[in-house]
What does this fold into?
Amino acid sequence: MITELGHFALILAFMVAIVQSVVPLIGAHKRWPGWMAVAEPAANAQFLLIAFSFAALTHAFVTSDFSLRLVVANSHSLKPMLYKVSGVWGNHEGSLLLWVLILTLFGASAAWFGGNLPPTLRARVLAVQSAISVAFLAFLLFTSNPFLRMAVPPFDGQDLNPLLQDPGLAFHPPFLYLGYVGLSMAFSFAVAALIEGRVDAAWGRWVRPWTLAAWIFLTIGIALGSWWAYYELGWGGFWFWDPVENASFMPWLLAAALLHSAIVVEKRESLKSWTILLAILAFGFSLIGTFIVRSGVITSVHAFANDPERGVFILLILAIFMGGALTLYAARAGIMEARGVFGMVSRESALVANNILLAVSCFVVFVGTIWPLVAELAFDRKLSVGPPFFNLAFTPFMIALAIIMPIGSVLSWKRARLGRVIHALRFPALLALALAGLVWAMQTGRSLMGPFGVALGVWVLAGVAADLWARTGRSRDLSRLARLPRADWGKAVAHSGLGITVFGIAALLAWEEEDIRVVQTDAPFTVGAYELTLRDVTQFEGPNYLSTMAEIDITRDGRAVTTLYPEKRLYPVARMPTTEAAIDNGILRDLYVVIGDEQVGGGWAVRTYIKPFANWIWAGAIIMALGGFLSLSDRRYRIAAGARRSAGAEVPAE
Amino acid sequence: MRWLVLLLLLAGPVFAVQPDEVLDDPVLEERARDISGGLRCLVCRNESIDESNAPLARDLRLLVRERLVAGDSDAETVAFITERFGEYVLLKPQTGGSNWILWGAGPAMLLVALLLAALYMRGRSTGAEAAPLTAEEEARLRKVLAAGDSGKTPPT
It folds into this structure.
């Protein structure tokens, strides 16, 4: 019964979405307040209906209702409760329902927080947002209905893919979707502004918090996914340039570009046309990502049950929304005249450089991701584009970005003086070079990546410090820092996060140690500075798996460091083995141990890694997200954001 | 079903490089690891043979090591494998033929972007500042400012 109600709620939401995407748009055009006012209650109703529908599906998973086809295919009565719940979105249909839930949540929050928008703009934003709902609800109902019943319910389900039976699944997709779908707000604002025919500083101020929120969630989602892969897949890789990873990375890059260009719109009323285009493209890449993940045209380790018919449907959605928005853009871009004037050396031009690097690097990732498809269709070549390509073609852009970041941060708006920049950044530059030299001297004969990463990381971090120091003014009054706007702190924190991540990646790649060997019980062996001893290997039965668990003591200079318990699991229902690496997390290094197969001649295969500074990669990402939150809490977004048309003029041109 | 088989292959016995594969010569082994990191496991979804647990990946790893021990250079080893399995096996695509589009796309796009940005910025730095206020706007502005100073609403 609850299932049928959930299904019904989904259909109702589809109807509401159709109304919401048409009526307010006409109302805004004709200036009819009554019609425009439909948008707000409709957005709320849509959200509540989808939330109910999602709750109904969750109920079916939690109670193991095997009359539902989706539950049979992805659940099992013995599965732990956490995975019964997260299993709701561990499959195509359920995850799409989560997608739509978040989409309507954003729509509803635009209704809640949009009180200070001009009524016509608000009505149009909500209508465009709802048009996206219509498309995805149609997709859900007509090709991927999660509420289909089985004629003859089986006694038990087929279980969830064991790799997905991990707390990572509980958090990684929801955050990612919050990010993907959050970009729909930027899209809706861009399209509404194009229909409205006006883009000004106030628009920049309205669209930025939504972009910022989407970017924060994407950052967290990507970091969680990377960390999950690191501990789950058994060899400690953190980024694979897999098409599905790229699908989340491309919108992230464009969202980062959009964040920065929206600042220019807000403070200087320039780059308007470009910012609108970015807002459209960022969501476009979200849709492309959805297509890549769910259509199956590009092979990837992310095993969604794919279906070509669905791919065509998403392609259609992509064509309609991108085609429509870009046509509108082409027709209306001319009206967006820029106002601010700036010199070649200025904060504006640094932000333009930032946008070029981010957008072109996104383009490189895009070309690399779809190239196998293009090469096969157009040139009849079956080829692969893997990590070696991306490392070569993409990394230079990130290095350039890290190099210009501190420079851009200290440049002043409109017209800057190079001399002042050199003066402000002389210490960071010296420090970066000196530390890199020191590291290089210490690690003779190894790759240059380590020292280079140190130089970049230190340059970015010290650059942030120098920027803050410059903000204390001539009096070197530190209390001034406390009075800096939150957005400035957000920038400092987010930029340091990037520095930390850059350093972490370089350090891990440069100094990782690996050891593969056959180990006998109680026979110690050495890896790096550590001595490991395999004490025991035991077999036991988990709730829905069989486990082989090793006990490995680790000492350093005769002192006990830790005891690790790496596992090998077999999930009988899915007939699938997994490795559960045991990791001793540390600030300076991770010890990463994997147990392999029992050898014919006795003993066990054991793989040991020492991964220096591994956690810095994700710590940096989380710090970036934290910076985003700080910036989001800036008072200019909370207090009468854009209530006055001339708001942009009040911001001092620092 | 095909999907399940793929998964089984993907997860196989839970180990990539096995201890018995490792060569005694650390320099040779290092080269073997480098090469196998750049070769695709043909039956997996998107993994190099260095990371994969599939039996075929193991065979390929052993083949790479065999060639290296036989005295082949890195390039010769890769060529040997490519000859037998096609360029699909290369994770780093070749630069020849239509692939120049792939490799050239990034730099070309960067050049175009830089050119556009330079044109745009030249326009920005020489373009006139926003049009000056009209007399009427000026008068209204004075009114608003005067009212703001005394904290009253402007008489309209």
About this structure: Chain A touches chain B through 68 residues (CB under 8 Å). Residues 1-165 of chain A form one domain. The two ends of chain A are 61 Å apart (CA to CA).
